[in-house]
Amino acid sequence: MKIAIRTDANGQIATGHLFRCLAIASHLTEEGAEVVFVFAEPEVLSSYPAVTKYPCRVLNSDWRRPDSEIQSLIRLLREEQTDLLLVDTYFASSFYLAVLHKHLPVVYFDDLAKEIYDVSMLIHCIPETDYGRYLQRYRDRDTEVCCGLEYCPMRDEFRNCSRSSERPRRILITTGGTDPLNLQYRLLDRFVRNSGLASFCFTAVSGALNVNYPRLRQLEELYPERVTVLRNTMDMAELMKNSMLAVSACGTTLYEMCACGLPAVAFAIADNQLSVGRTMHQLGLIRYCGDARCLGIEESVEKNLEEMIADPEKLQTMGREIQLRIDGRGTDRICRKIIGLCSSPGMTGRN
């Protein structure tokens, strides 16, 4: 069984796409499958060396226009004798997916829910208060729909995380792999000067493509006892389990925080994160502060942080409740479905 994963990661794309694909690749490999990654550009190979443990192919295409790569990708899939294709990019069109689906089973991460797609399986793990409308779209179609927070893919370290009631007075700060708004520095600089947060230490996790990393290191040098800056770390579960609170963008990291029982103050840094933040707030999974591209986001984050710290009992309750909602086993569920698709009669040998 050989599975190709088509995704991208660069200075403009959130790294959550790559990391959830890596989690799925790891689990599929454990189950005996071969996995090959396919990228538009080679930049990801040097920026994220974790992906190079798998065979990687580069199409040298425009990641913004996947339709232009269809024929090259089909040739590659034939050469690799691929049994199934997993696609995780917001730029995939319904045409792109339908053409590929004529050649082999296609699984698509549908975060935006913009169109109806002709594929074998959809993964829609974006939080919603009611998934009924999404499921209704595919009621009469031959497409398996994996819908809900139970399908949030994560690395094995987030599966059944133990949660201690006594956590260090540490605040974890993450703003995505690139941090185009320089939010980590802006927030961290504010927090270390806040007398109400004087008893807390801060850990900022910076992505490999974060151009503001040198400024974060300057803060670390100024406040060596209170500030730790980590770059491109893969040990996120331990960091989350050893923090009392988090400040985060509304990306896939939020789901990992929930699995670790770590309450978070969150904000959107892109259009696709706006509804995620609002819905997770409505569900009681986070404290949402709004769009970080608007003025005043630092004040809003700081105010919410102070309010949560002021009520430790409520903070403990929130930590327990969010861990019940997201158990960290979404990767297992997705991989079982993928393996089932590959072994279904009539699903192989199409490419």
Give a verbal description of the structure:
The protein has helices at residues 16-30, 43-47, 70-80, 94-101, 132-137, 183-192, 213-222, 236-241, 253-259, 274-282, 297-309, 312-325, 330-343; strands at 2-7, 34-39, 56-58, 84-88, 106-109, 121-124, 144-147, 170-174, 201-206, 227-231, 245-249, 264-268, 287-291. It has 351 residues and is an alpha/beta fold. The chain has 2 domains: 2-156 and 329-343, Rossmann fold (3-Layer(aba) Sandwich), CATH 3.40.50.11190; 161-325, Rossmann fold (3-Layer(aba) Sandwich). The strands form 2 sheets. Strands 3-2-1-4-5-6-7 form a 7-stranded parallel beta sheet, with helices on both faces. Strands 10-9-8-11-12-13 form a 6-stranded parallel beta sheet, with helices on both faces. Strand 12, helix 10 and strand 13 (287-291) form a beta-alpha-beta unit. Helix 1 (16-30) packs across helix 13 (330-343). The longest helix is centred in the first third of the chain and has 15 residues, at 16-30. The two termini are 13 Å apart.
Structure characteristics:
globular; about 350 residues; Rossmann fold; 13 strands; single chain; six-stranded parallel β-sheet; alpha/beta; 13 helices; seven-stranded parallel β-sheet
Short structural description:
With 351 residues, this protein is of the alpha/beta class.
What gap, in angstroms, lies between the N and C termini? 13 Å
Structural class: alpha/beta
Question: What is the level-2 CATH architecture name of the largest domain?
Answer: 3-Layer(aba) Sandwich
CATH class of the largest domain: Alpha Beta
Helix count from the secondary structure assignment: 13
Q: How many structural domains are formed by the residues? A: 2
Poorly predicted parts: none
Strand percentage, roughly? 15-25%
Query: Main β-sheet: number of strands, strand sense, barrel status?
Result: 7 strands, parallel
